[in-house]
Design goal:
Blueprint lengths: L12 H15 L5 H12 L3 H21 L9 H21 L3 H14 L3 H10 L6 H30 L1 H22 L11 H14 L1 H28 L8 H8 L3 H17 L1 H21 L4 H26 L7 H52 L3
Helix pairs in contact: 1-6, 1-7, 1-8, 2-3, 2-7, 2-10, 2-11, 3-5, 3-15, 4-5, 4-8, 6-7, 6-15, 7-8, 7-11, 7-12, 9-15, 10-14, 10-15, 12-14, 13-14, 13-15
Length: 391
């Protein structure tokens, strides 16, 4: 397709659907490993702490990609950036599937995270090329696709790992990236860059944006802390359900991932209510839901009912926090939408990496109570940021 989008043109529903699906397929690469950690650990002879480095490095790679790759969407043609990333991603996923040592998996996981950032080219695009009345809805539509990908990734990888082995999942993922690249070549319109200058000046402008907009700093920080709390659940869930009283395999973690459908369904409607309820109030609601989730995971952690209730509450709370905070930043400087999203999402995934690392470390020392303490502490810190702010 050779058509070119203009600033006042609205995205069609068909294009939004394609972008939402590819966003989901792309972000799924970050989460395939969560139900598979026990299988990877056993196959490669690693301990639980070493296995937990896999999702941590994937999150770090994702944060690095958000910081160094996504700003390029304001400087170069976005289609070109997407295709280069998908090419590298195919090789990284194949390397994980063929790996004979944990170190190869760790390095390839870093590159997998680095190049799986394409959904965050799509989200600013949806914000930039939407009429004001539909901006929240369209951003929520892409985000729903992204969340569905997260949800489906855990379910699919749990079952594939249980019945065909963890390596097969990564071969399938590489094939999906090849198909996605082909669809992008054919369907994505051409979009002209909005920034004139060098890559160095582009990156320097990030610091200027951080300094200029206090709402950007606040939204990024409180969302990052909440995301760290959210990922603490999944960082150790596969170890939790492999022990008494569950003694379950990777497919059980995949099925628990289905509980995330509550978050995916709420994301598409949250954007409509943010202006009505207010960003600050929305964040309070999300934090209280996450604290309630951790209370369920602590008191009911020895039953599937408690785990399911906690996961559902955490998913709904997290998606409300992310979408309300993220949608609010694009109005600050529309011509810098990719860079605003870069700052927000880089901070967001640094918080996720912190939560994953702290949860894994506390699991080694204190088991599930330690993980609960990490999750509640990070959620409380996010709430405190909201209490101490005026925006």
């Amino acid at each position: 397709m050779t058509t070119e989008l203009k600033n006042n043109e609205n995205l069609s529903l068909s294009l939004l659907t394609v972008l939402a699906v590819i966003a989901g397929v792309s972000v799924a690469n970050l989460y395939y490993n969560q139900p598979l950690l026990n299988l990877i650990r056993t196959d490669l002879g690693a301990n639980e702490f070493q296995a937990n480095l896999i999702p941590m490095l994937t999150q770090i790679g994702y944060a690095a990609g958000l910081l160094f790759i996504i700003p390029l969407g304001d400087l170069y043609r976005r289609k070109q950036i997407i295709l280069i990333n998908f090419t590298i991603l195919v090789f990284a996923l194949l390397s994980i599937g063929l790996a004979g040592h944990l170190y190869i998996v760790l390095i390839a996981s870093l590159f997998t995270g680095l190049c799986s950032v394409m959904p965050h080219i799509f989200i600013p695009l949806a914000a930039q090329y939407s009429a004001p009345a539909y901006k929240g809805r369209n951003v929520g539509f892409i985000l729903s696709g992204l969340l569905t990908g997260i949800l489906a990734s855990r379910v699919v990888s749990g079952f594939v790992g249980e019945y065909w082995g963890w390596r097969i999942m990564y071969f399938i993922a590489a094939g999906l990236m090849v198909v996605s690249a082909g669809i992008i070549v054919y369907l994505l319109p051409d979009i002209r860059p909005t920034f004139r200058g060098s890559y160095g000046s582009l990156m320097k402008s990030l610091f200027a944006l951080v300094h200029r907009y206090s709402l950007l700093r606040l939204s990024s920080l409180r969302s990052a802390l909440a995301f760290g709390s959210f990922l603490a659940v999944w960082a150790c869930l596969t170890f939790k359900v492999s022990q008494a009283p569950f003694y379950a395999g990777s497919h059980a973690v995949g099925l628990l991932g289905l509980c995330g459908i509550a978050g995916a369904l709420t994301a598409s409607t949250v954007g409509r209510y943010v202006p009505r309820i207010g960003l600050r109030r929305f964040h309070y609601i999300g934090c209280f839901l996450m604290l309630a989730a951790w209370l369920c995971l602590w008191l009911g952690g020895r039953s599937y009912v408690g785990l399911i209730a906690g996961i559902i509450l955490a998913d709904i709370g997290m998606q409300g926090i992310q979408l309300s905070n993220q949608a609010s930043i694009f109005d600050l400087c529309p011509e810098a939408s990719n860079r605003l999203n870069t700052i927000f999402m880089t901070t967001y995934f640094i918080g996720g990496s912190l939560g994953t690392f702290l949860a894994g470390s506390c699991w080694q020392l204190f088991a599930w109570p330690g993980v609960v303490a990490v999750g509640m502490g990070l959620a409380a810190a996010s709430l405190l940021c909201n209490i101490c702010s005026r925006e």
